């Protein structure tokens, strides 16, 4: 049976305690650059990355120190080179989770799973311009 409507997740919005740390981590470790941001001082301050992550900063927001922070279970992130991303992530005070060395917990509790892409899957996904 075919579905007339196909869909994918365009972005996931995540509340974070330190948005600047998260922007730097997603950019420097995973190569996710900023696509859009609200003006500084706007509440909530928000940043969207190319790659589908929306980071939201609210004054006074405190994340729980464990993965049960209530935000979401984890982010599965497809990477071109998992070993390079894992090596880069180690310099960011992340914690390896019991699920495996490619499961990382960021300092304020957000969990990510780094998944090795095959072929040009990442480049092909990033080439899609759904808002154009």
From TrEMBL:
<feature type="domain" description="Glyoxalase/fosfomycin resistance/dioxygenase">
    <location>
        <begin position="10"/>
        <end position="91"/>
    </location>
</feature>
<dbReference type="InterPro" id="IPR004360">
    <property type="entry name" value="Glyas_Fos-R_dOase_dom"/>
</dbReference>
<dbReference type="Pfam" id="PF00903">
    <property type="entry name" value="Glyoxalase"/>
</dbReference>
<protein>
    <submittedName>
        <fullName>VOC family protein</fullName>
    </submittedName>
</protein>
<dbReference type="InterPro" id="IPR029068">
    <property type="entry name" value="Glyas_Bleomycin-R_OHBP_Dase"/>
</dbReference>
